[in-house]
Amino acid sequence: MRLLACGQVVSKTRIPAHGQVLRVGLRAAGDTEKDVSPASPEGDCGDGRCGLIKRPGDLYEVLAFHLDRVLGLNRSLPAVARRFTSHLLPYSYTDGSLRPIIWWAPDLQHLEDANNDQNSCALRWLQYQEMLRPHGLTSVSEDTPCSSIPHGEWSRLALFDFLLQVHDRLDRYCCGFQPDPSEPCMEEMLHEKCRNPEELVLVHILVRRSAPSRLVFIDNAGRPQHPEEKLNFRLLQGIDSFPAAAVAMLRSGRLQSLLLESLRVDRELWESQGGAKGLRPLLQTIDRRARILLRYLQEHGLTVFEDSPC
Question: What GO cellular-component annotations does this UniProt entry give (predicted)?
């Protein structure tokens, strides 16, 4: 986080098909030029000293990172808020606006398919639902996409995405609520595909080569303003248990205070949002969603599972 917040920008690379996103190489205090690999397709940022600068509108990714840590999920990549001044960056990146910068994990596993490189495995909605069903003594076939990812990972993902109302991964078609005409799923005519579940696919399902059984959560800005009457419960479909530690945190009544304590570490974000007073409405929204989720667990008789040490 210190590298992301304070590291000197030493190189930049455009990310194909992501116009307003830049990958940058960073040099920490004490590093020399030879310590830093270039942020180029060849350099690959393999030394872990790179970050992804995203749009000002993606700032909630920083909040998502802190929520992930407070809940003990530990599946989101480190993220901080930062203002950039480097002469290497385009003016739109150095105009004083606050942007999130996300750590670039050098070993994220991507499919070789150029049309589907935002996944580590290609998984359809119906395959996903089948994979979540109890199979007794029989296990999911190894030929099934993402079969190496255990049930607990999907439970963590569903809980996290529900609290933030991240639809892009599990429901990019907005099948779980009635979207407004301005929603991307409407503008791109994706919502129409809800009539045919066979066509629905999951996106941003990623793992690292160093830990292929653990999901990595990316693009987590979510929808802080998403109306409560339109909460997307489809994100929870098929999940029959949730991580005990995260559920205990939601029940504790301490979620808001611990989030404030964590967010205070990011001074840029903290001050830009007006400190605790400015952040409170956002945290209250997440807290209300947490109570709705707890009620959902109770009404559906869902259980919790103990987290593994890893």
Answer: Golgi apparatus
